[in-house]
Amino acid sequence: MMARTLYQKLWDDHVICTEADGTALLYIDRHLVHEVTSPQAFEGLKIAGRKPWRVSSIVATADHNTPTQYWEQGITDPVSRQQVETLDANIRSVGALAYFPFRDPRQGIVHVVGPENGATLPGMTVVCGDSHTSTHGAFACLAHGIGTSEVEHVLATQCLLQKKSRTMLVWVDGVAGRGVSAKDIVLALIGKIGTAGGNGYAIEFAGPGIRALSMEGRMTVCNMAIEAGARVGFVAVDDTTISYLRNRTFAPKGDTWDKAVTYWRTLVSDEGACFDSTVCLDAGVLQPQVTWGTSPEMVTGIDGAVPAPEDFSDPVKSEGVARALNYMGLVPRTPITQIAIDKVFIGSCTNSRIEDLRIAAGVIKGRQRAESVKLALVVPGSGLVKAQAEAEGLDKIFIAAGFEWRHPGCSMCLAMNDDRLSPGERCASTSNRNFEGRQGGGGRTHLVSPAMAAAAALAGRFVDVRDLV
Amino acid sequence: MDRFVKHTGLVVPLDRSNVDTDAIIPKQFLKSIKRSGFGPNAFDEWRYMDHGEPGMDNSSRPRNPNFVLNLDRYQGATILLARANFGCGSSREHAPWALQDYGFKAVIAESFADIFFNNCFKIGLLPIVCSKAELNSLFGLTEQSTGYTLTIDLENQLLVRSDGHVVPFDIDAFRKKCLLNGWDDIGLTLLHEQEIREFESKRKLRQPWLFS
Ligand code: SF4
Predict the structure, then answer these.
(1) pTM for the complete prediction?
(2) 10 Å Cβ neighbour count for B10?
(3) Nearest to B69, CA basis, from B13, B22, B25
(4) Is A410 in the pocket of ligand 1 (CB under 6 A)?
(5) What is the pLDDT of residue B1?
(6) A212-270 pLDDT per residue, tens
(7) Is A32 close to ligand 1, i.e. is its CB under 6 Å away?
(8) Are A250 and B20 inside 8 Å of each other by CB?
């Protein structure tokens, strides 16, 4: 048999049938559901008189709209409350493998909850009405973000209509140095290939720089594959994958575990398999990254400076940069280390796992948030992450340093709840999107790693965290 | 889904690249549990001078006089002209819903984000990829002449300009068939019900841990 890429293997394993033009019907193993993109799908299903195909594929939680404080008051925003209650009612009526409703000890961001409960397993197709579903690719899954019509389609048929993507190998050489993390690798990649660079591709992340990452780090990288324009991104199975999954709630046990592991070990690209495109990056020479604009590709190292529109020859691009700088309130050529911040957000499905919190806590331990920083927010990705962090005393470190320690959820990543920036406020954020208004109307977002966000909170401006650790 | 065969309509040029889904429909409007009613809030932050929230009377809000969709000459536009990487960002179908609810039948751009592109087909909003050179000339034409219209002929996969110049475009055969007939994907997939069941039983035998 011809050498196959991991993508080809995952694809072949799920194709039910293919149309003449290559559109295939793919079987879906795991369907993650949250409150924002599912109500219209459940409604559509009901109106058509259809039943969900396999409810045991569903894992659901409420995350986007849920508040991160005053939980005893419930959800006070009536529109948000209605959406969360609609999810409650829908799951109650159809059922699910697992549901972690608002205030459940295991509630959290859907992309944190799936893996930590072992509901994301290698070789699965995973879908969710959320573009950051690519996160689950860290487990050698084919994980697609889908729209609401597709959510309904998967509910009704357990399938997704897909055309095969081209394949891109992102080979990360070298190992990230002290103070440099998975987030810096993926930001640097997006800076290199652009936010449309991965359009139409399925990205496999490989090489020593990826192998050296923990599962948390790999999830961070795959999470932002979508910001590079790729709908799916993934990493092959290795020992790190398998030891992460052992004993997780929904992971197989006993003989089935052994059988599963044998299969999982095959989930790697064969020697000599061909990719349509290859991009190389050296993690060994990377600086911590900071975005300066309103698209994740507008990024530079901590030693860099904000560019000027005239640095770009393409007029559309140049005008885009001018608009971004205007929105961001930045003057061309400003060194990144001279940008002062108002708020810090440590959280989101990119960087709210236990490792992220440990790293951030390690930076701030025994130090203090700068006076000029109005708010430094830590929002764990899930109830389990929060409990683990508290067991390790991380919450105390954050609180002692002047950070706020909150309940889990998406929070200021997209500001659908009360956690948001005011117009003009500048934030060092560990999330994944710096679009205009993403963290609140008029808010200015700089994407960074947890270590860099922590360092910025201490200094009141961006600084090189490598000088602190 | 509505059928899409041929459409002639007024064109509005949105001359920006990387227009993201947050810009197309800001998140505060995603709290709705309905599929319709997003049109008045399409491009909310660019269209209005104040901050929009669900439930506001949009007709009395202050409009941004400089935003292209607000210009008199583009009122009633049904074809949106855009640049590269249109619809990047989230998977929210609320973005194509909002464009459709606003009145758009098609979006023509140099490139689209994958998920957005896919979502458009699911609701019968036609996304058309067009070369940069053709786009440049379309932007020029719409800006030069008030009331500039285009015809989109899906059957023959052609953009027909009012000066008679035609531009062919690509589309997947399967998607084209669905649009021309207004077919519902779920109904089509369920024609394969038996095959899905057989696939599922085999999968259960080989990888039982996926079905616990
Ligand atoms: S944390 Fe942010 S990016 Fe992740 S699912 Fe929530 S809103 Fe989306």
Answers:
(1) 0.95
(2) 18
(3) B13
(4) yes
(5) 79
(6) 999 999 999 999 999 999 999 999 999 999 999 999 999 999 999 999 999 999 999 99
(7) no
(8) no
Q: Could B196 and A159 be called an inter-chain contact, meaning their C-beta atoms sit closer than 8 Å?
A: yes
Q: From CA A385, how far away is CA A63, in angstroms rounded?
A: 14
- Binned at pLDDT 50, 70 and 90, residue A316 comes out as confident
Distance CA A37, CA A41 (A): 8
Distance A412 CA to ligand 1 centre (A): 9
- Whether the CB of A131 is below 8 Å from some CB of chain B: the reply is yes
Q: Is B31 within 8 Å of A36 when comparing Cβ atoms? A: yes
- For chain A, the average pLDDT equals 97
Statement: residue A340 has pLDDT above 80: yes
Which residues of chain A are within 8 Å of residue B200 when distances are taken between CB atoms? 27, 54, 158
A2–chain B Cβ distance below 8 A for any pair: no
- The low-confidence residues of chain B, meaning pLDDT below 50, are none
* Nearest CA, atom 4, ligand 1: A349
Q: Of ligand 1's atoms, which has the minimum distance to the CA of residue A432?
A: 3
Q: Cα(A48) to centroid of ligand 1, in Å?
A: 30
CA distances from A269 to A169, A273, A335, A342 (A): 10, 6, 42, 45
Contact between A267 and A14 under an 8 Å Cβ cutoff? The reply is no
Q: In what order do the strands lie in the sheet with A15-18?
A: A15-18, A24-27, A159-162
CB distance A344 to A377 below 8 Å = yes
The ipTM value here is 0.93
What's B6-181's CATH class? alpha beta
Residue that the structure tokens 């969709």 belong to: B69
Q: What percent of chain A has pLDDT over 70?
A: 100
Q: What is the pLDDT of residue A417?
A: 86
At A453, is the pLDDT very low, low, confident or very high (cuts 50, 70, 90)?
Answer: very high
3 state SS of B10? strand
Domain locations in chain B?
A: 6-181, 183-212
